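User: Predict 5-methylcytosine-specific restriction endonuclease McrA's structure from this.
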Amino acid sequence: MNAHVSQGGWPVLVLNADFRPLSYYPLSLWSWQDAIKAVFLDRVNIVEFYDRAIHSPSFDMQLPSVVSLKSFVKPSTHPAFTRFNVFLRDRFVCQYCGAPDDLTFDHVTPRSKGGQTTWDNVVAACSPCNLRKGNLTPHQAGMFPKQTPFAPTVHQLHRNGRLFPPNYLHESWLDYLYWDTELDP
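Assistant:
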């Protein structure tokens, strides 16, 4: 069992009203305390339980392991431009050499040469490649990203997020996660 759980963490998978996770990476999880609070506020339905209960002087309750929101939350169609989302779009690998470690943010066209900090000009790059490319354009450096940078959709980020399951997956969550779904490259 995961140390987080054995120390009383008991994370709860949070599903939208359509029974899909609110996000895959990071996986939409709440603490058991937040889930219990949402149950009492009548904001969620309990879908699955842990084999563990909490007790108070006035009631006993089995801990939820999966909850679904009672009201559908419309997913954003345009993901925020963040370092994390760039890494997720690029599947956490350097777009120049494919290394998965020591990732940084690289402006394909350097800012000093008019490059913007946008989806279309930023890629994940390992530190050695970023240092080697430096302040040069791809042509000057002879270094070209494996994929042309682009603004991803939420669907594309979710699809990529499924490639990176969290360290802990409770068996009661598996029917609501689609880790084995065929994914496009």
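Residues 1-7, 180-185 have pLDDT under 50 and may be disordered.
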